[in-house]
Amino acid sequence: MTSPSPSAGTDAIEPPSGCPVQLASDVLAGKWTMLIVQELLTGVKRYSELQNALPGISSKMLAQRLRMLEESELLTRKIYATIPPRTEYRLTRLGHEIEPVILAMTGFGRKLAATQDTDDKRQASLPL
């Protein structure tokens, strides 16, 4: 019989070192990361196209997320020596592997929205 671990009985779950879910979560975390990847799934985009497609994202946050995705080898950046300089971003093969995750999130988001709409209608029909 094994003795319980020191954290047995607590709600905290410590992910094991090298856990693939934790690694994916670390890379894809943040409000904007998945939205940027979703935009790039349709093809090559320039910085300004991404900024226009994501209302509310600051230039600093977009640059930071793009840099992180590039460092994680999920996208590539190509700078053209033009005036003004032109920069294009595209997903790598690994970056395209996120598409099924985004499709699953889309389906879940639709179900969640439908549930919330139903709850809102139910609340509205209750007598005051």
TrEMBL record:
<dbReference type="InterPro" id="IPR036388">
    <property type="entry name" value="WH-like_DNA-bd_sf"/>
</dbReference>
<dbReference type="InterPro" id="IPR002577">
    <property type="entry name" value="HTH_HxlR"/>
</dbReference>
<feature type="domain" description="HTH hxlR-type">
    <location>
        <begin position="19"/>
        <end position="117"/>
    </location>
</feature>
<dbReference type="InterPro" id="IPR036390">
    <property type="entry name" value="WH_DNA-bd_sf"/>
</dbReference>
<dbReference type="GO" id="GO:0003677">
    <property type="term" value="F:DNA binding"/>
</dbReference>
<dbReference type="Pfam" id="PF01638">
    <property type="entry name" value="HxlR"/>
</dbReference>
<keyword id="KW-0805">Transcription regulation</keyword>
<protein>
    <submittedName>
        <fullName>Helix-turn-helix transcriptional regulator</fullName>
    </submittedName>
</protein>
<keyword id="KW-0238">DNA-binding</keyword>
<keyword id="KW-0804">Transcription</keyword>
